[in-house]
Amino acid sequence: MVEYGVAKHVLRGQGESGDLHLVCCSQNGVLVAAIDGLGHGEEAADAARTAAALLKNSLDEPVISLVERCHQELKGTRGAVLSLAFIATDKQMMTWIGIGNVQGVLMRANTKRGNGQESLLLRGGVVGAQLPSLQATVLPISRGDTLIFATDGIRSDFSADLSVRENPQRAADRILNQYQRGNDDALVLVARLTGVEL
């Protein structure tokens, strides 16, 4: 249902990244997430892995419930910021939500249907520490639309240089190479919708 590419950068001197991604299919659709454990190193990676495991085991729950469950599970850890989207392919809809500063952009394959680029509204907070009032956004989707998540190790101006024609892995690699800050872990996840009927 999706073709995706991921590019990562581990902060120099750290053994592992605190930034993780998740792309999981269920009978009802696809869950796509980018998770940034606070800070970097092993404790950040532990928090991100805990959130990823919970999301993977609860694919078909509403996105707000997923965030609330992650919040409970991450109490006592460093916590994390995350953005996630559930793509309901049969309904041609995507529901997404962002807590913290993991940027999200949806690039439209068919710009005749409206705005060519939609940005995820991010809400301040830390999953596991302080959760804001949660509100998800629902958008119509079409085959060829491309979802991009980028953690805060990537500069926010990456969205000015996107193309729906670019291969997802090449796009992820290019964004990482051109826009990484270099002072933090970084992750770029690019997912193109291939299984949605027009």
What does this structure look like?
The structure is a single chain. With 198 residues, the chain is an alpha+beta fold. It has a single domain, classed as 4-Layer Sandwich (Phosphatase 2c, domain 1). Helices cover 20% and strands 34% of the residues. The strands form two sheets. Strands 2, 3, 4, 5, 8 and 9 form a six-stranded mixed beta sheet that branches. Strand 4 (80-88) and strand 5 (93-99) form a beta hairpin. Helix 1 packs across helix 2 (63-74).
CATH architecture tag: 4-Layer Sandwich
Our Rg estimate from Cα atoms comes to 16 Å
Multimerization status: single chain
Q: What is the CATH superfamily classification?
A: PPM-type phosphatase domain
* Low-pLDDT stretches: none
CA-CA gap between termini: 13 Å
Average pLDDT rating: 91
Total separate domains? 1
Short summary:
This protein is α+β, with helices and mostly antiparallel strands and 198 residues long. The protein has 3 helices and 11 strands. It has a single domain, classed as 4-Layer Sandwich (Phosphatase 2c, domain 1).
Write the layout of secondary structure elements.
Layout: E1 2-9, E2 19-26, E3 29-37, H1 42-56, H2 63-74, E4 80-88, E5 93-99, E6 103-107, E7 117-119, E8 122-123, E9 137-140, E10 146-150, H3 168-179, E11 186-193
Helix pairs in contact: 1-2
What characteristics describe this protein?
six-stranded mixed β-sheet; alpha+beta; Phosphatase 2c, domain 1; single chain; 3 helices; five-stranded antiparallel β-sheet
